[in-house]
Structure to design on (688 residues):
């Protein structure tokens, strides 16, 4: 699937026979072991491997949980307690799956900010970026569906609030929103029908994600990796084979990430959750504050930043939708923000705006929190639709290194000892 | 690096903003107690959980179910009555304690009967259903306690605070009929009458047991409910230590391999 030339030569009878029928070893060789990778990738670039690990963990633990979980409004909560108490190591598998979702989002946010900073969405990697946004959107859907399954109070009320978004479309065509809502829930309220379909879709979507991940990696392997300098690979002196150079680096980073993961699973398994989700769903009791999981908080803040429901819903979906257009919104010729002194400042402000939106999303929508949510929402959109295109037009970028190899030497302070050319 | 320090400053600022906002959620600061199960190496105090079970059985069980916990859990490997050398001893101890507890069942003709509870039974629920519970409790439904410690912000401290937070209502508070004033309950009016009222309400019989003061009984029953909410906690923390040690060793080996492999590459 690589765009480059194959470097594989079968050496014995069997591998020659196999290579002319199903070139499995050739594909692995060209795309994993010998894949030429820029030699200056820093630790921010290890999150691709970390995310693959997260997806695998969620799939494996999820399949085991599905063997014990009962998708029914009457029995879901009890089946979770059965898993936690009576299934062998059920507590471990569930805590890994629960915290695995948070770890997955933590890693994906680092991965996305890294892509934005180093301009990894620019030509020729537009499709790679768009596939990434699709994966992110599918992850959000999967996480939302999964959170409803334990059938606690936050499961139920979260599902009620989120599906209620669609009722906003009653403002467009009376009856449209409520019709869609009833169709989605399979009932007039979130109830047994919803649990069952949410479970079916929660089981389905991760396999769709895995499929899009395959395309994402394919789209990565045609142009090859971007790198912190943002300049193209000029030749073999700029690259190292993926294995063992990056297998070992990604492996080390993944082990460190697993330690953070383990601290949550074994020592603070419920820290990122909400206590109300250990109270069984009750349609007659509304929790004092309905809050989503931490990874949705920035979008929740955007939703509530405006008083009008339909505008809020459109802004929230727009906040994800705008990401699809990022490759064409950035008019700078330089990829990496390391060489863009002005854009870099705006990027830092963007990260701060996202964190501030996350904080505001956890507060009741009033007073200072509402103001911060409104300012954050304004900056979020202005960053993409105004700052990104315009800054690239008048900013003077710093001088780019001639090649990755030269950049590496300069960074290590060896430039002075290079012979003059 | 400038960009990193800017981000770090932003993070600290947000944390500073968030801390008071989170703290202001509960109206009154909870009482805090030292729990044997706090911290990464904390374990349950089996004797305390046994006493707490007695408080649950003699006081709470009159109104509150514990439906996801079974009697066998008390004597099982994670339980406070477990006797590793001879599991039979622990089982017999629990059997003696539940002697006289009658649970509903069906006889061979399909007729409803009650029979002596067995180890395999879940804890008996005091009411047949929610309507019966409400009818007997001034319209309130006493919640199931199986995961109560995980179901409230503040966890064990919250339960302990509620159990010891009953007071005379201040003069300016108009109490609803049948409600009690509790300093730590949201809105201060709680449907549950003060459950632990006086010293020695429960008789602790185990040798070496502390005096059954109101405060001690509240702590003991809270510890019992913490165990009921998370019976695998000790196993979890033990496993966590092994996992972290293994991962630290793995990470160290990978880091050394990384240094070795990259030694000949300028990067």
């Amino acid at each position: 699937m690589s765009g480059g030339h194959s470097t594989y030569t079968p050496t014995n009878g069997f591998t020659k026979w196999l290579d002319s029928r199903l070139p499995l070893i050739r594909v692995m060789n060209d795309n994993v072991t010998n894949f030429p990778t820029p030699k200056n990738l820093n630790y921010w670039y290890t999150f691709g491997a970390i995310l693959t690990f997260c997806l695998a963990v969620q799939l494996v633990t999820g399949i085991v949980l599905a063997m014990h979980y009962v998708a029914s409004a009457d029995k879901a909560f009890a089946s979770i307690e059965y898993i936690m108490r009576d299934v062998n190591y059920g507590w471990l598998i569930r805590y890994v799956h629960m915290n695995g979702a948070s770890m997955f989002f933590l890693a994906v946010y680092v991965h996305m900010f890294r892509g934005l900073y180093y301009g990894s969405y620019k030509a020729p990697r537009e499709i790679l970026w768009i596939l990434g946004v699709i994966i992110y959107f599918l992850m959000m859907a999967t996480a939302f569906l999964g959170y409803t399954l334990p059938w606690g109070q936050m499961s139920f009320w979260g599902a009620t609030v989120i599906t209620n978004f669609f009722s906003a479309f009653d403002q467009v065509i009376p009856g449209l929103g409520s019709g869609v809502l009833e169709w989605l829930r399979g009932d007039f309220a979130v109830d047994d029908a919803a649990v069952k379909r949410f479970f079916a879709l929660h089981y389905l979507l991760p396999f769709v994600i895995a499929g899009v991940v395959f395309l994402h990696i394919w789209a990565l392997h045609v142009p090859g990796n971007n790198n912190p300098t943002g300049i193209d690979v000029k030749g073999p002196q700029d690259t190292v084979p993926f294995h063992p150079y990056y297998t070992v680096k990604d492996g080390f980073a993944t082990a460190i990430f697993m330690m953070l993961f383990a601290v949550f699973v074994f020592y603070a398994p419920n820290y990122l959750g909400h206590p109300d989700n250990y109270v069984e769903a009750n349609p007659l009791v509304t929790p004092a504050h309905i809050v989503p999981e931490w990874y949705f908080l920035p979008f929740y803040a955007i939703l509530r930043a405006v008083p009008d429901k339909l505008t809020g819903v459109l802004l929230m979906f727009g906040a994800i939708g705008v990401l699809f257009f990022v490759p064409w919104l950035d008019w700078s010729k330089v990829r990496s923000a390391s060489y863009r002194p002005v854009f870099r400042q705006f990027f830092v402000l963007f990260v701060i705006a996202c964190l501030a939106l996350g904080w505001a999303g956890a507060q009741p929508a009033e007073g200072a929190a509402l103001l911060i949510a409104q300012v954050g929402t304004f900056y979020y959109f202005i960053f993409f639709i105004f700052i990104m295109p315009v800054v690239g037009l008048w900013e003077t970028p710093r001088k780019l290194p001639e090649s990755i190899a030269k950049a590496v030497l300069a960074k290590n302070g060896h430039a002075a000892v290079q012979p003059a050319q | 690096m400038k960009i990193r320090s800017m981000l770090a400053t932003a993070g600290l600022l947000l944390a500073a903003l968030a801390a008071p906002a989170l703290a202001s959620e509960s109206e009154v600061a909870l009482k805090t107690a030292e729990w044997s199960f706090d911290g990464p190496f904390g374990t349950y105090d089996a004797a305390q959980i046994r006493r707490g079970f007695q408080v649950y059985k003699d006081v709470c069980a009159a109104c509150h179910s514990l439906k996801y916990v079974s009697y066998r859990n008390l004597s099982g490997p994670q339980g406070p009555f477990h006797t590793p050398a001879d599991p039979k001893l622990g089982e017999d101890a629990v059997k003696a304690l539940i002697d006289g507890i009658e649970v509903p069942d069906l006889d061979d003709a399909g007729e409803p009967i009650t029979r002596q509870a067995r180890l395999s039974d879940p804890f008996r629920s005091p009411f047949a259903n929610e309507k019966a519970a409400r009818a007997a409790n001034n319209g309130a439904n006493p919640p199931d306690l199986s995961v109560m410690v995980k179901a409230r912000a503040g966890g064990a401290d919250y339960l302990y605070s509620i159990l010891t937070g009953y007071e005379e209502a201040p003069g300016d508070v108009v109490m609803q009929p049948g409600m009690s004033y509790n300093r730590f309950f949201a809105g201060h009016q709680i449907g549950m009458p003060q459950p632990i009222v006086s010293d020695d309400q429960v008789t602790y019989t185990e040798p070496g047991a502390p005096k059954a003061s109101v405060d001690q009984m509240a702590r003991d029953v809270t510890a019992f409910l913490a165990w009921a909410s998370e019976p695998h906690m000790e196993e979890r923390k033990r496993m966590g230590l092994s996992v972290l040690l293994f991962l630290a060793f793995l990470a160290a080996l990978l880091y050394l391999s990384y240094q070795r492999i990259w030694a000949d590459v300028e990067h």
Remarks:
- The longest helix of chain A spans residues 192-221.
- Residues 415-421 of chain A have pLDDT under 50 and may be disordered.
